[in-house]
Each structure stands twice: as C-alpha cells, then as structure tokens.
Amino acid sequence: MAAPLNLNDLHFFVQAVEHGGFSAAGRRLGVPKSTVSKRVAELESRLGVRLIQRTSRSFSLTELGRDFFRHAQASVIEAEMAEATVRTHLGEPSGTVRMTAAVPTAQFVLADHLAELSVRYPKLRLSLHVSDRFVDLVQEGFDIALRSHQAPLPDSTLLQRKLATHPFFVVASPDYVRAHGEPQRPEDLAGHKAVTADFHGEPWRLVSIEGDAVAVTPEPVIVADEPMVMMKAAMAGLGVSCLPTSVCRGALAEGRLVRLLPDWTAGSITTTILMPHRRGQLPAVRAVVDFLSERLGNF
C-alpha cells in the first residue's frame, strides 16, 4: 500500500497557491523559496502529475491542480482545527487569524477594539491586511473579511454574519451652525453648503422617524469619497455632511460636530463578517468573530 501524502508538503503547496508563488510563500513561512519549490516538486512526483505550471514569468494551477488545491486546502484546515481544538481545551485560543478590511472599516469600526482583543486573548495573533481592493478570501488564505456596505452583499459560498448597522446623520460643526443657522426641516438644506461623497450631484434622500421621505440637494463645496476627509472638512466648518455613526460618533460625543435634523436619517451602512466555511470553524477564528460580534453589536 502506498504511503500517505506528507501533510507538510500539502501545507507548502497550499501556501504557494494562496500567496501566488514560491517566493511569497517562502516569506510567509520563513523559509527559502527553494525549499517551497522543492517540497511542491516532491508532492507532484509522489502524485505523478503536474499541479502547477510555472515559468520565470508566470505561476498558475493546472486544471487538475485546481481540483487538488480545494481538497488540499481543506485537509490543511482540518489539521489546523484538530491542533486548535486540543489547544483550546488546554487554555485560551491561540494561533494566527488573518483578517482583511477596507481602509474606512479598519479606521472607524475595527481599530478601537484591537487592544481589548489582544488583552482578552494574549496567545492569539491577529494579522490585519488593510486594503480597498477586492480581496478573495479563499484564494488569498484569509480567515475573516470585515466589510461595510450599503447594498446587500451578493450570494456566495462564504459564511456571512451581520455585525451592526449604522445610520447616516446630517452633521455640521458648531461654528458652521452659528454662522449659517440650523436647518429646521430637510428642505432648508437646499440653501446650505455641503461636504458630500456624491460626484454626480444626486440629491440626499432623507427619511423621518415616521417614514416620510424627502430629497434635497445642498450646494457641494467639497466632494470626496473618503470619510475621514469628509469628516475633517465638516469639522472645519466647510459645510453640512451626511456621515454614518460609525465615522462621526466620536466627533459628536466630543462636540466637534453636531447632529442636525435629529428626526431624520440618510440611509445606513451595514458591517458584515465573511468567512470561508471551514476556516469559520477554527477555535481562534470563532473567538475573534464572537468578540467582534459582542463589541460591534453595541457600537
């Protein structure tokens, strides 16, 4: 009977695929590129098939390699789960959890809670990749993605767990209100300067507590698609703005911004956790997800 496959070789292969090459996998694993290449070559020799097509300029899976990768990745995760289960019974969650989030989500939703997460789970290491590009969790080997979105996320094979919904408030600086007056109804905003994210000049659509809807178009003085820029412009007194509570909560509490039209909101943004199915079962991943659900659910 043939000897079973070496799990370490599967691990090297999975890392090479998830990181898009032997060099990147070597850096991730802390070993030379040649070691990764050799172990993958030994795996291919053991199987008698080519899994990866590699040249000096390209690195891609063969058709059989793609099928093998899915099973190999599942096997590696199962081994991680087996080890993590034992470690969990011996003490608190440990190991590395790889997370990705867009820049505004990392800045305004996640950053304030990382210190508490570290204190609660001192044996756990969070590796956070912050990027506004689309990140493929499965192909790039991430355990968790934290995404903030206004439209529903598309259906996928990923697990989704809604964490929080943040309404958009109409806000301005106290100096702006003193200089230009406070609007008493949504229609009054048409006469105000605005810091907005809409490059197309679409009206703001406000909804009251009672469910009434009004569309208004203030005069834009700054248009930006980055919430930190918008908030700082509003705090500087350049105009009114619509910001989600996840962004402006601190500035409102400190009095650097004030909420206008308190019975009205301008939509909302939702923060959701996404996870590949199997990685969501890892004890360390579950610990991070449960922590974020606890903290952000009250955020």
What this model shows, in words?
This protein has 299 residues and is an alpha/beta fold. Helix content is 40%, strand content 25%. It has helices at 7-18, 22-29, 33-47, 63-90, 103-110, 114-120, 137-140, 174-180, 227-235, 245-253, 283-296; strands at 52-54, 59-61, 95-101, 124-130, 144-149, 159-172, 193-196, 204-208, 213-216, 219-223, 240-244, 258-260, 264-265, 268-275. The strands form 3 sheets. Strands 3, 4, 5, 6, 7, 10, 11, 12 and 14 form a 9-stranded mixed sheet that branches. A 3-stranded antiparallel sheet has the order 9-8-13, with no helix packed on it. Helix 1 (7-18) packs across helix 2 (22-29). The mean pLDDT is 87.
Biggest sheet descriptor:
9 strands, mixed
Number of strands: 14
Large-scale geometry: elongated
Distance between the termini: 57 Å
Rg, Cα atoms, Å: 25 Å
Low-confidence stretches: none
Beta-strand residue percentage:
25-35%
- The average pLDDT is 87
Order of helical and strand elements: HHHEEHEHHEHEEHEEEEHEHEEEH
- Amount of helix: 40-55%
- Total helical segments: 11
> From the helix content, strand content and strand pairing, which structural class follows?
alpha/beta
Oligomer: single chain
